[in-house]
Every structure is written in structure tokens, then in C-alpha cells.
Design brief:
This protein is of the alpha/beta class and 241 residues long. The chain is built from eight helices and six strands. The chain has a single domain (17-236), classed as HUPs (Rossmann fold, 3-Layer(aba) Sandwich), CATH 3.40.50.620. Strands 3-2-1-4-6-5 form a six-stranded mixed sheet.
């Protein structure tokens, strides 16, 4: 289908998330990204990527629509070296024009995590200072953002819409309807490089202290915060301001 997003002339005239979701609920990922671009313009649209095991697929679709859409990458200070290398590989492979690596505020780390053990004692607080707060700052100039969540990932993601209200901005989930098989097809068709840790059993990669391998038959995110009730870092469970 050719999904058409309502034309807007200013941020104050943004279409509602409900209106866009109705128009795009059966759209392809490329159509969703194109509609987001049309709704707010490149200068007001960002894609947030972890450069994790599935990230290349969304970045590839985005690059085919417009490789100059800004990409926000949260460099928490706890990432695997392989993830940082993969970021650089994908930037070159896909021709991404504007990847912004965002780090936590040094004064916050000094005040709240001086011994770098907050991930163990209070992982929610660790995610807040290393991911949630830096992303909120990075998104300030933007009216909408794209992310790679998928319904098949389960838990809080099982019922995500294609477009949702994220407080001060619109949040687009271009891959909401995409299946594992469709993701794999994108990897194969585009000959995309894999995350270096994928071959050794890491199906979902976040920060080093809170990421482990997953066993056969486990949910793909079972290796995140293993042994804890925590399943999300927080950037998708609270609205940005």
C-alpha cells in the first residue's frame, strides 16, 4: 500500500499518533519511515539504534529511504567493543550520513555511579543515567523518532502500535509487524554484516554487565538482565519530555 501521512506545516500541527497509526497499521517499514519523514521533515526526525544484533535491518531500510536521517546511538560506557566496531562497520556499509554517539553526562556518572557498580545494585538507576536521560537530551531537537521494536519480541512489546504518542513527540515503530523470517530475509537479501557476537550465542546485545548468551529455545531477550524481573532499560516504558 502507499501510506500517505498527513502534511504538516509546523510542529504544533503534527498529526495525532492515532491518526497516523490508523493510516500506517498495514504499511511496510519503508512506507512507515517515508511517512514519518513526510510528517515532520528530516531535521525533526531521528532513528534511535543500539547497533545490536538486529539493528542492521532497520538501518538498511532507513538508508534506502534517506541515509541522512539522523541516527542516535547511546554509548553508555558499558558497551561491548564488538558493538562499537559494528557501529562503525554499518556506518560505512550502509552509507549513513549522520550518526550521533551520545554519552552519559560525566557529572552524573561521578555523582551517582562513582564506583561503576550501579548496574549491580540498582540496574534501573544505571539505565536511567546511562540511557534514559541521555536519550531525552538527544531527542530535544526532534519532533518524532524511529526505533526497532517488534511485537514478536513479546512482553511489553507484544501489542505496540506502529505509531504512538511519546509525550513531546511522535514515536514510530516501523518493524512492529515484521516477523523473524522477514528480518532474516532482509539480512540475506542485502548481504548485511552480522553483529560480531551473534555467532557466539548473543541474540540480543546491550551493556556488558547485563547481557548474557541465550540457550536454544529461550526468548531472544532472555539474556538481558538475566535473573531479574527487569526486561526493559526504560527508554520504551516512559514518555520523553
Amino acid at each position: 500500500m502507499n501510506a500517505i501521512a498527513p502534511q504538516v506545516s509546523s510542529v504544533s500541527a503534527l498529526p495525532s499518533a492515532e491518526e497516523l497509526d490508523r493510516a500506517l497499521r498495514d504499511a511496510s517499514p519503508a512506507e512507515v519511515i517515508a511517512a514519518a519523514l513526510k510528517a515532520v521533515g528530516r531535521d525533526k526526525l531521528a532513528l534511535v539504534s543500539s547497533f545490536g544484533t538486529e539493528s542492521a535491518t532497520l538501518l538498511k531500510v532507513m538508508a534506502d529511504v534517506d541515509p541522512a536521517i539522523p541516527v542516535i546511538f547511546l554509548d553508555t560506557g558499558w558497551l561491548f567493543e564488538e558493538t562499537l566496531a559494528y557501529r562503525d562497520t554499518l556506518i560505512e556499509t550502509l552509507g549513513l550520513k549522520d550518526v550521533r554517539s551520545i554519552r552519559p553526562a560525566e557529572e552524573t556518572l561521578t555523582r551517582e555511579d562513582p564506583d561503576r557498580d550501579l548496574w549491580f545494585s540498582d540496574p534501573d538507576a544505571c539505565c536511567r543515567i546511562r540511557k534514559v536521560e541521555p536519550l531525552a537530551r538527544a531527542l530535544k531537537p526532534f519532533s518524532a523518532w524511529l526505533n526497532g521494536r517488534k511485537r514478536f519480541q513479546g512482553n511489553a512489546r507484544a501489542d505496540i502500535p506502529v505509531v504512538e504518542d511519546d509525550g513531546a513527540r511522535l514515536k514510530f515503530n516501523p518493524f512492529a509487524n515484521v516477523s523473524r523470517e522477514e528480518l532474516e530475509a532482509i539480512f540475506v537479501r542485502a548481504k548485511l554484516p552480522r553483529h560480531p557476537l551473534a555467532a557466539s550465542g548473543f541474540r540480543s546485545v546491550g551493556c556488558m554487565p547485563c547481557t548474557s548468551r541465550t540457550a536454544e529455545g529461550e526468548d531472544e531477550r532472555a539474556g538481558r538482565w538475566r535473573g531479574r524481573a527487569k526486561t526493559e532499560c526504560g527508554i520504551h516504558t516512559m514518555k520523553t519530555s
